[in-house]
């Protein structure tokens, strides 16, 4: 029995609607997962809230790294340098000079941007592994400065007594209060990155990611936009470093070691490089996974490593891109 033309037209009209609905669901799935994890930590509180709070700080840090690596397709191993500048600026100015939270964070942000401009202007002319090695050197040099500059950073002894997050007399001291403040900061970061991606600047970044030669032929100032991407990445890194020291109340050079870079790379690729939700999902998953495998005791690291490998094998585009890939396979 053949269907009438009117029936065929109605089915054709409903098909895009169903596809669009599935597409919206696929894009919303990572955010729903992240919201469920944060909501669970908010209800439970205690240790779970602390773990998720650190994950949210890393989400901001990795979002900055994602601008440079995901949107612009460059490589940076020096993101921890900007977190160190923001963190130590906030720590020193609030403890030694009794600055307020926002002025201290603003000073750290300005310092990180100035440092990124000075080192980025000559460094970003390099390409490939030369650029990655140069940025790695930036991170290592900053770490050594934090260790050796005892009169300011207190070296390995660190700086303690850093005031908690607070604005206009309100201080976030409990686990749930800190989690709420950090959630607001992550939402603002996500909206900012999404806005950058949709803007003219974001389209220029996409051009650079595709081909620098083609972007240059289209009239895009390659050097300028690479530097702008580097500065935006440094800004988010500085903010993450400042938030970290005020949440913990203590800072030392070990916080900004090479381990921070390795962890952030893992979060970025597990979550989905180049996606908006990737840094948030990746930071939450990589932070929560070790806690879920504590029952394995002696085999905890083995189980954790195996889980990460399986994630990268079966979700090469990251968890944020996994749902989109599933939807693309279902769609004709």
TrEMBL record:
Answer yes or no on keyword Iron: no
Segments spanning the bilayer are 31-61, 68-89, 101-121, 128-146, 178-196, 227-249, 261-290, 302-326
Where in the cell is the protein located?
A: Cell membrane
Q: What is the membrane topology here?
A: Multi-pass membrane protein
Question: Which Pfam families does this entry report, sorted A to Z?
Answer: BPD_transp_2
List the coiled-coil residues: none
Q: Does the keyword S-adenosyl-L-methionine apply?
A: no
Matching entries from InterPro entries are given as: ABC_transp_permease, LivM-like
**Which UniProt keywords are given for this protein, alphabetically ordered?**
Cell membrane, Membrane, Transmembrane, Transmembrane helix
Question: Which protein, by its recorded name, is this?
Answer: Branched-chain amino acid transport system permease protein
Starting at the broadest rank, the lineage of the source organism is: Bacteria, Pseudomonadati, Pseudomonadota, Alphaproteobacteria, Rhodospirillales
């Amino acid at each position: 029995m053949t269907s009438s033309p009117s029936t065929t037209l109605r089915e054709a009209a409903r098909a895009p609607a169903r596809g669009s609905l599935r597409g919206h669901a696929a894009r919303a799935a990572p955010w729903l997962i992240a919201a469920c994890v944060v909501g669970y930590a908010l209800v439970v509180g205690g240790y779970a809230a602390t773990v998720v709070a650190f994950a949210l700080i890393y989400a901001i840090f990795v979002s900055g790294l994602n601008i440079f690596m995901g949107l612009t397709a460059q490589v940076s191993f020096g993101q921890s340098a900007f977190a160190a500048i923001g963190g130590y600026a906030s720590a020193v100015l609030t403890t030694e000079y009794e600055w307020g939270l926002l002025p201290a964070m603003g000073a750290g942000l300005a310092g990180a941007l100035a440092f990124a401009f000075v080192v980025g202007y000559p460094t970003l002319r390099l390409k490939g592994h030369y650029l990655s090695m140069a940025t790695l050197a930036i991170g290592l040099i900053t770490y050594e400065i934090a260790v050796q500059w005892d009169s300011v950073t207190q070296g390995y002894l660190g700086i303690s007594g850093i005031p908690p997050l607070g604005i206009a007399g309100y201080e976030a001291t409990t686990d749930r209060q800190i989690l709420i403040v950090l959630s607001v900061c992550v939402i603002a970061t996500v909206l900012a990155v999404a806005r950058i991606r949709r803007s003219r600047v974001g389209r220029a970044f996409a051009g650079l990611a595709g081909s620098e030669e083609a972007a240059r032929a289209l009239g895009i100032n390659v050097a300028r936009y690479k530097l702008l991407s580097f500065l935006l990445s440094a800004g988010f890194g500085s903010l993450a470093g400042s938030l970290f020291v005020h949440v913990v109340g203590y800072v030392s050079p070990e916080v900004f070691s090479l381990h921070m870079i390795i962890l952030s790379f893992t979060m970025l690729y597990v979550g989905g490089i180049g996606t908006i939700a990737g840094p948030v999902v990746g930071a939450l998953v990589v932070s929560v996974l070790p806690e879920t495998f504590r029952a394995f005791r002696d085999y905890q690291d083995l189980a954790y490593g195996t889980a990460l490998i399986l994630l990268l094998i079966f979700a090469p585009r990251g968890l944020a891109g996994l749902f989109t890939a599933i939807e693309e396979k279902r769609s004709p």
